[in-house]
Specification:
Distance between the termini: 59 Å
Number of domains: 2
Order of helices and strands: HHHHHHH
Structural class: mainly alpha
Largest sheet: none
Number of strands: 0
Shape: globular
Helix content: over 70%
Length: 177
């Protein structure tokens, strides 16, 4: 049974969905259950096989995930209040990542440029932020204004992080030549 093609992938997928379902049943976010299994699988010999499998699934599930998140955003809800909230959240996000990640890096690396790159590289907020915001809005814990502001923040930080990193690396390359 274990030697047949796809059995490991199928069993692992069933376990991921099963633990996600159990987590949801007991009142946790489904990602908690899937994350726990992911950590367990990461310490096995199967990790490479599962990574290849997940990489193929990403072509199906990633667009579906972002389509669902995008469908929850009401662009008609963007107003001055949402933009102000989004601006505050973006400012907090950037400053806390630069300080919270860049400062410890500077302490340990003793290199200002490298620690700045670490801080900038950590700015982007991605899928987990979207998942948590989605759970918050569907449970009523977040208003649609806050949810929209968070989506704007995720979009902005996802766009600016690679651009900013590229500029920092280009500046370093120019100064070293």
């Amino acid at each position: 049974m274990w030697k047949s093609q796809g059995s490991i992938e199928g069993i692992t997928t069933a376990i991921f969905f099963g633990t996600a379902g159990i987590a949801a049943y007991i009142g946790l976010s489904p990602i908690v259950g899937a994350f726990a299994v992911g950590m367990a699988v990461a310490s096995t010999k199967l990790i490479k096989q599962i990574e290849e499998y997940v990489h193929r699934l990403q072509f199906i599930f990633a667009p579906l995930f972002f389509a669902i998140i995008g469908a929850q955003v009401d662009l008609r809800g963007i107003n001055l209040n949402v933009l102000v909230i989004a601006g505050i959240i973006v400012a907090i996000d950037i400053s806390t990542k630069l300080i919270g990640c860049g400062l410890p890096s500077w302490i340990f690396l003793k290199d200002k440029a490298k620690s700045m790159r670490v801080g900038i590289g950590m700015i982007s907020r991605g899928e987990v932020g979207l998942i948590v915001a989605g759970v918050g809005v569907t449970t009523g814990a977040l208003s649609t204004d806050i949810y929209t502001a968070i989506i704007i923040m995720v979009a902005i930080t996802t766009i600016i992080t690679p651009i900013w990193l590229k500029k920092v690396y280009q500046k370093e390359m120019l100064s070293s030549t």
